[in-house]
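Morning, I've got a small favour to ask if you have a moment. You're getting the sequence in one-letter code plus the fold written as tokens. Thanks so much in advance, here it is:

===
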Amino acid sequence: MTASPDPPHDCARCPRLAAYRMDLRAAHPDWWNAPVPGWGDPGAALLIVGMAPGRMGANRTGRPFTGDASGELLFATLAAVGLLDGARLRDAFITNAAACVPPQNKLLRSEAAACRPFLSARINGLPNLKTVVAIGRDAHDSVLAALGARLTAHPFAHGAIHRVGGLRLHDSYHCSRLNTNTGRLTPAMFEAVFRAALA
């Protein structure tokens, strides 16, 4: 296990992702184009885990869920439930199952596994952590793997709540534009997950 919860700026664990980052650096030298570190309150009781940075979102800005439509819904929801004060997270921390943007927004299982030591370090490094919200199935699977839990014992379902060790894991569909535009996930459904996580 790695001691750091964030990969180094030029992490080379996943050759495909590293090559994609280099291509993006050449095309967009003013973007972040590196593993995106977690962000939030180091004393947080709630950890929010997404899949990976979006190309035009966190990969561009360097902050999870910032700069794209997914982030707009997430941050509006966090403000509604009292976890966001201006630009500051209160009692919450945000990270991703994988720290680098994947091509076509498709993360390979091997890439999630390669980044898992950083997720484990993040989970272990939050001393007051009680609850995790997994945004999407990939995040759910990675959190369970990081906690050493069996996927078959904790199937993903929107709104599901799992108890793993001393933590509660809450599942949500991803707040992507695809899911919100099709009505698979509504703002009310998303907010309900966070209100349950804070209960």
